[in-house]
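Lecture 7 notes: from sequence to structure.
We start with the chain below.
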Amino acid sequence: MLTVYRSNRAEFLARLLSRQLIEQQPGPLETVEVMVNTWPTSRWLGEQLAAANGISSLVRFPFPGSRLRQLVRQVLHLPAQEDDPWRAGQLVWAVLELLPELLEQPVAQPLQTWLTQREGTASGLTRDRWQLARTIADAMDDYALYRPDQLEQWKRPRPDDDWQPVLWRLLAQRLPRAPFGLQVREAVDRLRRGDVDPALLPERLRLFGISALAPVQVDLIQALSGLLEVEIYLLTPCPDLWQRCGSRRASLGDDWLVPPDGGWLAEAPRLEAVLGRMGAEFQQLLEGSGEAQLGSDARGSVCRFLQMAAAEERQPTLLDQLQQQLVDADSVPALERSSDDQSLLFSGGTGALAGGATGA
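Predicted structure tokens for the same chain:
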């Protein structure tokens, strides 16, 4: 099951996670994993959990890239500690070894010209040859994660192929494993067929504060949610940012894989468009495939700033009201600011970066 908890305050999500750890209490020797995007987030979240629950022990904060790769290896029964030969740091050596063979082919004439202009009569491993190989390896590494469809097409030779498909096929013949994006597709197929032993997988996956993943990673998470509990603690300006752009969503229909062109931003209020594009597109990926549709959600106090201000027996600040308008545009008819309200301040000065706004 896939559950998404949304809020525009990270501390509220942290409180919710701490409560979940109390209600779904792990065993005394069980390690809890919460995937985060940055090391500072892991430090902050660990401190929040310790403050809320009195202890934060045996909690790990892996990055989603490395953790999802481990899960793919488990599903495909691959060695757990094996290095991925398609990662740029490993792939650069294979590219260097295959460059001479590639440069002999007519399609590689642009590369040969580039090297000749820079290397001259030098032989062996030069700085320019290394930089070229590293740049190619970085691009192939990105293709493996973000363009698996392109790699699938490159498997079949075509008369008009450029040097990139030719090099990729040489690499695919040489390296022992498929690129990560193609491994994910095989793993997703197995998960959806039910051809995976649940004992190989953890009971629960938690992702905190992650607002962007590659489409293949989202596919993997959706497929895993059919066998285990997946909880996503999503930081977003408002719970329904993507749904507010209804005409854009309706125009996509079932063709959800079409990359967002940014045109839907014109249909959203400016503040939502500026602050929420990444989160909205991420939510499109989460909801769009049809394999793991998210149902209607009950929005509780996790985004109710005016009610929280009343519970604290104080008047809502200007920042509270602005945040509440992002959550529900009709909830605050007109913004009101008291004379001593300093929750939102604007400063001005010379230079492009001198002015700005701060929220307290």
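Points to note: The first strand starts at residue 2 and ends at 7. The chain has 15 helices and seven strands.
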